């Protein structure tokens, strides 16, 4: 059987979301670098109709949209991992937490994170309005996170789920020395620091070289 292929960019946030889940479940995979200049070509759009990275090819089964990919990986390679709880009430809480990430976290963390990334990596001027507006909204959202995480260890309950891991690519990007937003709220900080210490995140994030093949 062919090894699962992840088509993306090793340092791109969405690719990292999928790679983290693959590492979490120790699924052998090959990262196939995609030339960003090619993602709007008809040939690439056959695989990802919106012209974005990443997508996967699991032995001929292709899938795009990172959260759908992560759900597929967890269901296929980690059905007993608890990353997607199966008991109906626990599952509903998981979907609630996943929805919270998608609607209350990513839109603001990604915009703020991109500004910080542009400045750090490309030495570009930060758009202060974009940065401050999104950090201010995110701060209010994290206040609610803090209340949730004051009552339970993870976003969906007492055990780690995909909903927690979904935050990883953008949370570290949105926080910086000057704007240490992920460490402002104590319960959020405790949760965030536990997440970024996970071997599945460090395996990828800590890599200073682009690894194209990652096997277990
Ligand atoms: N909702 C998509 C978002 C994918 C996405 O935004 N990918 C970015 C890289 S992180 C991209 O390809 N950007 C280029 C573009 O949109 O043209 C997913 O989760 O897969």
How does this structure look, described?
The protein folds into two domains: 4-81 and 201-214, Glutaredoxin (3-Layer(aba) Sandwich), CATH 3.40.30.10; 88-198, Glutathione S-transferase Yfyf (Class Pi), Chain A, domain 2 (Up-down Bundle), CATH 1.20.1050. 51% of the residues lie in helices and 9% in strands. It has 216 residues and is an alpha+beta fold. It contains nine helices and five strands. It has a five-stranded mixed beta sheet, covered by helices on one side. Mean pLDDT is 92; it is low at 206-216. Bound molecules: glutathione (GSH). Glutathione binds next to helix 1.
Could you give a short description of this structure?
This protein is of the alpha+beta class and 216 residues long. The protein has helices spanning 13-24, 42-45, 66-77, 88-122, 128-149, 162-165, 171-174, 186-196, 199-205; strands at residues 4-8, 29-33, 55-58, 61-64, 213-214. A five-stranded mixed sheet has the order 4-3-1-2-5, covered by helices on one side.
